C-alpha cells in the first residue's frame, strides 16, 4: 500500500471500471468479486489474467482487499470512501419509499416526540437498517424549576415550561445536599428563569454565578452547577436519541460482527455520544456519509452512517435523522431516503413552531 492517497484521476479507464464493478458487486451481494465474474460484465473484452493484474494494482493502492485466499476482492474502507465521493450514482426517491415515509407525517394530533418515534420506525422499515432520530431540545421559556431529593445520591429536577410542557429529570447531586440547599438553589434559578429558555438560562446562570457566588453557600452553588450540566444534555439526559430497527442489524451469521454491532447499540442506548451525533451534521447542509472508523461513534461496529440534519423555521440545525447499516449499504438508494425524511421532519418542526 502506498503512502500517497490515490485518486480516480490516477486510474486509467480500465482500472476505474474494474474498481467500480468490484465495489458495485460487493454492495449488491456482500461477497468478494472475482476476475471471472468481471470478464462477463466489463465493457471491453479482456482476459481474467489481465483483470487480476488490475485488481492487484488496486489492492496495492489500498482500494481493494482479498479477505480470503480466493481471487475475489472487496473494497477497503478507503476504497468505499473513494467510490462514494467520486462514482456513486444517487437515484431518485422511489415512489413506494416516499409513500411509506409520508404516511408517518399524518396525525396532526400527535406530539412531536410521538411523531419522531414513528418517523424512526418508518425509516428503519423502509431501509431495512437501523434508524437514528435526534429530537430537538425543548426550547420554550421556563416557568418554574424545583429540585426534589430522592436519595442520598439521587435527585429529581422538575422543569415546568411556559407552554405547559413538563419534564422530570433524575440526576446525581453533589455530595452533602440538604433540603435547605436545594430550596436555595431552586430560588436562585427561578429568580433568573422568567422569560428564558433552558439554553438562555444556562448562560445567565454562568454570568450570575460569577457576580453572586459569595451570596450562595457552597453546596447550593454546586447544585446549581450540576443542574445546569444536566439541562445542557452533557450526561445521562432526556430521550433525545431515538433508535429503531436494531433487529435489522442483528440477523447476520457472523458472531464477530454481531458482537461489534451489539457494542454499537449499547453505546447508543447509553446515549454517551448524542452531542457527537449532532456535531457530525453541523459541518454543512445535506446528507453526509461516514464509513467505518471515519466516525468514532460507530468505529467499533464496522458500520456506515448516512445522516442529514434538519432545521427549524429560523434555519437553525436542531436535530438529525440517519440510517446505520453494514458498510455495504445501498448508498444510492439510502441517500435520497434520508434526505427526504430530514426535509419532512424540518418542515414538521417549523410548522409546529
Describe this structure in words.
This protein is α+β, with helices and mostly antiparallel strands and 353 residues long. The chain has three domains: 8-86, Arc Repressor Mutant, subunit A; 95-137 and 239-351, Beta-Lactamase (2-Layer Sandwich), CATH 3.30.450; 142-231, Enolase-like, domain 1. Helices cover 45% and strands 17% of the residues. The protein has twelve helices and ten strands. It has helices spanning 13-29, 35-39, 48-60, 77-86, 95-103, 112-127, 179-193, 198-212, 218-231, 255-270, 274-281, 331-351, and strands at residues 64-65, 74-75, 130-134, 142-151, 154-161, 166-171, 241-244, 288-291, 303-311, 317-326. The strands form three sheets. It has a five-stranded antiparallel β-sheet, sandwiched between helices. Strands 4-5-6 form a three-stranded antiparallel β-sheet. Strands 1-2 form a two-stranded antiparallel ribbon. The protein is elongated and about 85 Å long. Mean pLDDT is 79; it is low at 229-239. This is Heat-inducible transcription repressor HrcA. Negative regulator of class I heat shock genes (grpE-dnaK-dnaJ and groELS operons). Prevents heat-shock induction of these operons. Residues 115-335 form the Heat-inducible transcription repressor HrcA C-terminal domain.
Amino acid at each position: 500500500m502506498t503512502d500517497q492517497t490515490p485518486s480516480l484521476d490516477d486510474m486509467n479507464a480500465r482500472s476505474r471500471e474494474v474498481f467500480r464493478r468490484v465495489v458495485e458487486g460487493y454492495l449488491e451481494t456482500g461477497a468478494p468479486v472475482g476476475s471471472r465474474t468481471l470478464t462477463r460484465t466489463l465493457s471491453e473484452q479482456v482476459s481474467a489474467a489481465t483483470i487480476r493484474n488490475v485488481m492487484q494494482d488496486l489492492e496495492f493502492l489500498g482500494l481493494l482487499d482479498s479477505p480470503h485466499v480466493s481471487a475475489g476482492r472487496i473494497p477497503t474502507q478507503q476504497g468505499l470512501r473513494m467510490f462514494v465521493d467520486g462514482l456513486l450514482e444517487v437515484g431518485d426517491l422511489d415512489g413506494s419509499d416516499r409513500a411509506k415515509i409520508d404516511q408517518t407525517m399524518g396525525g396532526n394530533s400527535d406530539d412531536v416526540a410521538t411523531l419522531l418515534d414513528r418517523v424512526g420506525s418508518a425509516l428503519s422499515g423502509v431501509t431495512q437498517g437501523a434508524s437514528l432520530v435526534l429530537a430537538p431540545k425543548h426550547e420554550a421559556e421556563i416557568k418554574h424549576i424545583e429540585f426534589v431529593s430522592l436519595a442520598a445520591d439521587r435527585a429529581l429536577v422538575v422543569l415546568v415550561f411556559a407552554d405547559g410542557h413538563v419534564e422530570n429529570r433524575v440526576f446525581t447531586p453533589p455530595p452533602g445536599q440538604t433540603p435547605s440547599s436545594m430550596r436555595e438553589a431552586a430560588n436562585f434559578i427561578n429568580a433568573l428563569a422568567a422569560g428564558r429558555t433552558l439554553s438562555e438560562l444556562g448562560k445567565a446562570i454562568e454570568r450570575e454565578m460569577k457576580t453572586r457566588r459569595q451570596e450562595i453557600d457552597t453546596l447550593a452553588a454546586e447544585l446549581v452547577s450540576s443542574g445546569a450540566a444536566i439541562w445542557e444534555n452533557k450526561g445521562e439526559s432526556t430521550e433525545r436519541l431515538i433508535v429503531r430497527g436494531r433487529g435489522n442489524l442483528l440477523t447476520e451469521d457472523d458472531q464477530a460482527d454481531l458482537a461489534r454491532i451489539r457494542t454499537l447499540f449499547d453505546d447508543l442506548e447509553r446515549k454517551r455520544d448524542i452531542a457527537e451525533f449532532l456535531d457530525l451534521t453541523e459541518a454543512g447542509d445535506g446528507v453526509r456519509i461516514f464509513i467505518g472508523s471515519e466516525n468514532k461513534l460507530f468505529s467499533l461496529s464496522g458500520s456506515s452512517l448516512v445522516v442529514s440534519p434538519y432545521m427549524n423555521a429560523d434555519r437553525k440545525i436542531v436535530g438529525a435523522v440517519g440510517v446505520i447499516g453494514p458498510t455495504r449499504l445501498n448508498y444510492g438508494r439510502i441517500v435520497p431516503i434520508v434526505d427526504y425524511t430530514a426535509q419532512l421532519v424540518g418542515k414538521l418542526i417549523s410548522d409546529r413552531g
